[in-house]
Amino acid sequence: MSTVDKALDILDLFAEHRPAIGLSEAARLLKRDKASTLRYLNSLESKGFIEQDPFTRSYHLGPALARLALIREITYPVNRAARNILKKLVADTGETAHLTHFSAESLTHIAIEETAYRGTRVFIDPAEPLTLHATASGIAFMSRCSSERIAGFLNEPLVVHTSETETDRTIILDMVKQARKNGYASTSGTFESDVCGIAAPVFGPSGTVCGAVAVATPVSRMNPVIRGKIAGFVIKAAQHISRHYGANRLPEQVAE
What we know:
The protein is an alpha+beta fold. The protein folds into two domains: 3-73, Arc Repressor Mutant, subunit A, CATH 1.10.10; 77-245, GAF domain (Beta-Lactamase, 2-Layer Sandwich). It is 43% helix and 18% strand. The protein has a five-stranded antiparallel beta sheet with strand order 5-4-8-7-6. Strands 1-3-2 form a three-stranded antiparallel beta sheet. Strand 6 and strand 7 (195-203) form a beta hairpin. The protein is elongated and about 65 Å long. 33% of the residues are buried. The model has no long low-confidence stretch (mean pLDDT 90).
């Protein structure tokens, strides 16, 4: 492990639930001796990446990170980055891609990129919320929620969108478990009768799921081989967007 990696590992220790950290705790979490840990702490402090509280002697994130974050947002905003990732996803799959965030018990569209590679394509209404139980995005989102939270979602009346919309809570839970195992969800005809969706969860700065990125394709173009290829691209796109959102440690996501 390089010197830079060792220093960056210290920065990764900071989180919403751990805004400050002491020398002993940092050494314990990193499984290093105090002398080497202190050396990296001092180096990071000298560059302004962390600061030490003179009273508690604990360290917290420093102003250099705020400066870099501001520069990043000015020069390469998160929304633009996410759109560029969606454009790459469209280029990779040849299908329409979209990004959603959780809001008011459903998923709301943040960005949509339609494909220009197909004569027949899926049109997505940006104003229409996606129900969690009936969409690949919703199943992918729930796959990274707690059991209690999922139960709360499924205790609400489940809207029937098409003849394929699943309302059996046991079956929906099985779909969620499969999505958690695979790292992505796939549905066919459950929200719109002729549309297949493939989605992966997106995570925010705290590491909790905040939405999903998905590809929508006509059912007529879908088969197991294409589904597997698209799933791999969707998972990578979700990971890239999550990192732009500030999520450093992502749950393992592997397409089968």
